[in-house]
Request: fold
Amino acid sequence: MMTSVDTDLIRVLADPLRLQIVTLLAHETLCTTHLVEETGAKQTNLSNHLRVLREAGVVETEPCGRFTYYKLRPDVIEALAGSFTDLATAARATRAADTKRACP
Reply:
């Protein structure tokens, strides 16, 4: 069953810009300047989205001089994927057993 942590994470990743950031960070560690160039978003808007991702535990920061680099935490994504895999497994079992709740 999905936990509240999973549903909160789904809400975080449901935003198109945050999903774009996560997708970019899946391929390389980037700083805010790189992310502004890649997404076309304003720096303040991007910083707000990065804060949400950081607070949700999706990304971690790495200071480097006057820049802050962002890295994706693959374990968090894997845990969420595992929850969806569990749902798919349960759905397959339900379909195979053809179980349905009787109406009152």
Remarks:
- The first helix runs from residue 4 to 14.
- The first strand starts at residue 30 and ends at 31.
- The beta strands are 30-31, 59-64, 67-72.
- The CA atoms of residues 32 and 47 lie 7 Å apart.
